Amino acid sequence: MKKYLMATTLLIGLGAAGVALADDDDCRVPMADWQPREAVQAMAEAQGWTVRRIKIDDGCYEIEGRDATGREIEVKVDPATFAVIEFEYEDDDDDDDYRDRNNATPGQSVTPPANGLFAPGTAPVVEQ
Asked: Which of 5, 14, 97, 104 makes an SS bond possible with 108, Cβ 3.0 to 4.6 Å?
């Protein structure tokens, strides 16, 4: 009897762990509360994005397209509120999420700070 109880407890524990591992949905919104794809399209266009594809991934809407500067993007949004869950530039070598969209993109120049250390045409000043 003890072996039967131990085996049953073990199987129930493994089953619960398997369900927890398989449940990787980022958005947990009932389908009845989802906004339509047309609203997703309108939200994306209001952001200045050109939408190539809208699909469902991990319980969220996923928008594939380009941002206002022409960079390829992949954005995962909550289907009810359109809150951004993930934002990725597809041309980045790494997979960091939540990139700062105000960072310089390839081809842009960054103005050095006006602190005297970086004057054009001069070597950096090192103080000891």
From this structure: 104
